[in-house]
């Protein structure tokens, strides 16, 4: 399932890049793209565990003080 | 400026005042106190964030590195430097946040084609304002003058001019009347329109365009991929080098050198040198400015009615040196029209066209439509009777009681009328009245006004090879092709042949260069997919084109291809400038720092100063007005 989320407080480009790597490395994630300019996260992950994965992604985002808006 | 940014600005101003005052005061204690106060005011959040991130297990972040660098300076007794570095770092960060905010805003303004509401007309005639997403297919909506068309539909009632500039970049308004299809995202300039919705919001033009532009950056260019890989290794590398720089040289000198100094005596100087490394260790300038350039380029192209589906396609576009055109619908309008008429002696042109238009008045064939269009006036069908089709040849009809024949040469031969040979291309309609030859009318697919100009401009934009493909016969294809000035013309091709030919061209071209195929996206999807860059023309309203192509040109102008190439080249140029500039300044300052020739001030410039300059430079990509 591929979903797009808005990101809040995404202030630094390097953080966006690091966050993208972090989320993409999570288990069950097929692909993750953080669009720094549009402040969006495009997450493609396993359907069955999508909610769990999203929670894990938020944990990664927490490191950069960024909120994934559902 | 947002509240958050303003607060940061006030803190910087307060700290700057304290800093200047501190620098002016000679008394050592007051001097130090003022500088520490300035540091705390401007840098407390950096230190807090660093502490928080260490707890979360995230070392090597820029806050941590700034903290280490400035604490190191304090430790060495360089109060001025510690406060100044933090101050300038924060000024740079503030500027970055502001610039990013501004460019985000200018891009979202650019893409501000999202309709806010739709006026839905209920069965009882009442009108209700709802979210466009709530409108279903076949609902009837009302669009008042000045409002944005919220969903794609067909006009049931009313006529108006539509401003399509936000979709196509065209400033001239388009007329729309009953029965016409209209696209969401346009603005209704004048009249009141009642429209039957043909597509849900999610499927309508406006959402497709927005989706496309916003998601374009998920397809990254090689330079973006390079930067994000680079960033991953850059910071750890620089930090490790800093550690090595502060320990290894003093150790070596103290053991093997002849200065007679111990490691502890040498260490402070080398430690100071290593601090410059820490300040430069954030790859921010690169990480932000490259995607920003591409985002700007894609946004700027969208402003001109050129949709680019990904940074990688913009990058490929800059490397295109071969462009293959499909003829019909790309270089020509794909619409038949009377190109010229050749009346027989003693017959006026008007008489010839009138006879043909009336004879063909019941036909819906494109040829008949073009004849009636050339006639211009109303074709009164009551003047026509006894229309007889003559299969494979044409037809005969009585117009004002006189027998008119209109058809091909075989028809003339059948009725025994002698006539001169026509041209070898296009469709020739021969007309006779009884047994008298009236003349011939040449009907052809019309070449677009700016096709010739477009081919010429492509040459000046660095395109080496222009190729035209067409299913037309040799004479027709070559006439159009050579008139437009294409380098190669391939005629009489079946759709399958086109793919084969493009594959051959792909093999024969330079490895580094790219091949673009331009089609109308309707029946050349396989070729569009096969080319390095597939460009679809006249994307406005054609879903097939938007789906199949990598770049969609919303208008019908082939000259926009040159615009796209120029935008691509400019964007790539900016990205390259930023990469080279940022890397060379950073590496330069690191070398100078290691040699003790650059202090932390220079390092701050290499960090935030370079980022600022790179951001300003990348914003140039947004400006595509004169391209």
Topology of this protein?
The complex is a heterodimer of chains A (70) and B (627).
Chain A: E1 2-8, H1 13-24, E2 29-35, E3 40-45, H2 50-62, E4 67-69
Antiparallel strand pairs in A: 1-3, 1-4, 2-3
Chain B: H1 3-24, H2 28-55, H3 62-75, H4 79-110, E1 118-121, E2 127-130, E3 140-143, E4 153-157, E5 160-163, H5 165-168, E6 174-176, E7 181-182, E8 187-188, E9 193-197, H6 205-215, H7 222-256, H8 263-280, H9 284-303, E10 306-308, H10 311-318, E11 320-326, H11 327-331, E12 332-343, H12 349-359, H13 366-375, E13 384-390, E14 394-399, E15 402-407, H14 409-415, E16 427-433, E17 436-447, H15 451-460, E18 465-469, H16 474-484, E19 488-490, H17 495-508, E20 514-519, H18 525-530, E21 533-536, H19 543-548, E22 551-553, H20 560-594, H21 600-619
Parallel strand pairs in B: 11-18, 11-20, 18-19, 20-21, 21-22
Antiparallel strand pairs in B: 1-2, 1-3, 3-9, 4-7, 4-9, 5-6, 5-8, 10-22, 12-17, 13-14, 14-15, 15-16, 16-17
Helix pairs in contact in B: 1-2, 1-4, 2-3, 2-4, 3-4, 3-8, 4-21, 7-8, 7-9, 8-20, 8-21, 9-20, 9-21, 10-20, 12-13, 20-21
**Protein chain pair with the most extensive contact, residues per chain:** A-B, 21 and 26 residues
Give the % helix of chain B.
Answer: 40-55%
**Low-confidence blocks of residues of chain B:** none
Spatial strand sequence of the major β-sheet of chain B: 10-22-21-20-11-18-19
Oligomeric organization of the protein chains: heterodimer
Q: Please provide the count of β strands of chain A.
A: 4
């Amino acid at each position: 399932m591929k979903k797009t989320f808005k990101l809040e407080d995404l202030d630094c480009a390097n953080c966006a890049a690091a966050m993208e790597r972090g989320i993409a490395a999570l288990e069950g994630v097929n692909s993750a793209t953080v669009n720094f300019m549009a402040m969006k996260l495009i997450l493609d992950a396993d359907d069955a565990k999508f909610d769990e994965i999203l929670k894990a992604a938020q944990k990664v985002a927490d490191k950069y003080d960024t909120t994934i808006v559902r | 400026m947002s509240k958050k940014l303003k607060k940061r600005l006030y803190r910087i101003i307060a700290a700057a005042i304290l800093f200047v005052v501190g620098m002016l005061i000679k008394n050592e204690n007051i001097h130090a106190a003022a500088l520490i106060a300035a540091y705390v005011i401007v840098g407390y959040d950096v230190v807090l964030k660093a502490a928080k991130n260490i707890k979360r297990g995230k070392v090597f972040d820029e806050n941590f590195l700034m903290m280490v660098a400035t604490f190191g300076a304090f430790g060495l007794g360089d109060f001025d430097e510690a406060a100044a570095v933090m101050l300038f770092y924060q000024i740079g960060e503030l500027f970055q946040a502001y610039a990013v905010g501004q460019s985000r805003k200018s891009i979202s303004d650019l893409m501000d084609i999202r309709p806010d509401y739709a006026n839905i007309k209920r069965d009882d005639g009442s009108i209700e304002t709802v979210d466009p997403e709530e409108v279903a297919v076949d609902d009837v909506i009302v669009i008042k003058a000045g409002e944005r068309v919220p969903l794609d539909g067909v006009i049931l009632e009313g006529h108006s001019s539509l401003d399509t500039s936000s979709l196509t970049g065209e400033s001239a308004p388009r007329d729309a009347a009953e029965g016409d299809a209209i696209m969401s995202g346009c603005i209704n300039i004048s009249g009141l329109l009642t429209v039957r919705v043909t597509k849900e919001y999610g499927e309508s033009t406006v959402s497709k365009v927005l989706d496309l532009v916003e998601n374009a950056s998920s397809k990254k260019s090689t330079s973006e991929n390079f930067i994000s890989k680079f960033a991953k290794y850059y910071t750890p590398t620089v930090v490790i080098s800093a550690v090595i720089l502060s320990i290894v040289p003093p150790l070596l000198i103290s053991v093997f050198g002849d200065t007679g100094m111990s490691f502890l005596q040498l260490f402070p100087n080398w430690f100071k040198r290593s601090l410059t490394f820490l300040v430069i260790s954030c790859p921010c300038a690169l990480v932000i400015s490259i995607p920003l350039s591409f985002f700007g380029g894609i946004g700027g192209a969208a402003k001109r009615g050129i949709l680019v589906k990904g940074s990688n396609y913009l990058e490929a576009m800059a490397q295109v040196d071969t462009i293959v055109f499909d003829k019909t619908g790309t270089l020509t309008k794909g619409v038949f029209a009377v190109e010229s008429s050749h009346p027989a002696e003693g017959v006026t042109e008007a008489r010839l066209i009138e006879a043909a238009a009336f004879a063909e008045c019941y036909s819906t064939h494109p040829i008949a439509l073009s004849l009636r269009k050339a006639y211009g006036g109303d074709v009164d069908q009551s003047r026509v009777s006894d229309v007889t089709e003559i299969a494979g040849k044409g037809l005969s009809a009585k117009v004002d009681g006189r027998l008119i024949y209109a058809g091909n040469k075989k028809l003339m031969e059948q009725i025994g009328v002698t006539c001169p040979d026509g041209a070898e291309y296009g469709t020739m309609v021969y007309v006779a009245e009884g047994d008298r030859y009236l003349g011939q009318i040449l009907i052809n697919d019309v070449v677009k006004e700016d096709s010739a100009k477009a081919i010429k401009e492509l040459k000046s934009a660095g395109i080496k090879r222009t190729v035209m493909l067409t299913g037309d016969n040799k004479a027709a294809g070559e006439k159009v092709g050579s008139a437009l000035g294409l380098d190669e013309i391939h005629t009489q091709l079946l759709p399958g042949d086109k793919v084969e030919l493009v594959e051959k061209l792909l093999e024969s071209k330079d490895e580094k260069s790219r091949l673009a195929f331009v089609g109308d996206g309707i029946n050349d999807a396989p070729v569009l997919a096969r080319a390095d860059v597939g460009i679809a023309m006249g994307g406005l309203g054609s879903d097939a084109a938007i789906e199949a192509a990598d770049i969609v040109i919303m208008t019908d102008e082939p000259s926009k291809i040159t615009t796209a190439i120029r935008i691509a080249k400019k964007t790539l140029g900016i990205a390259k400038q930023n990469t080279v500039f940022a890397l060379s300044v950073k590496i330069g300052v690191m070398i100078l720092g290691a040699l003790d020739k650059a202090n932390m001030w220079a390092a701050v410039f290499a960090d935030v100063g370079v980022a600022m300059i790179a951001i300003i430079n990348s914003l140039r990509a947004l400006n595509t007005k004169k391209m």
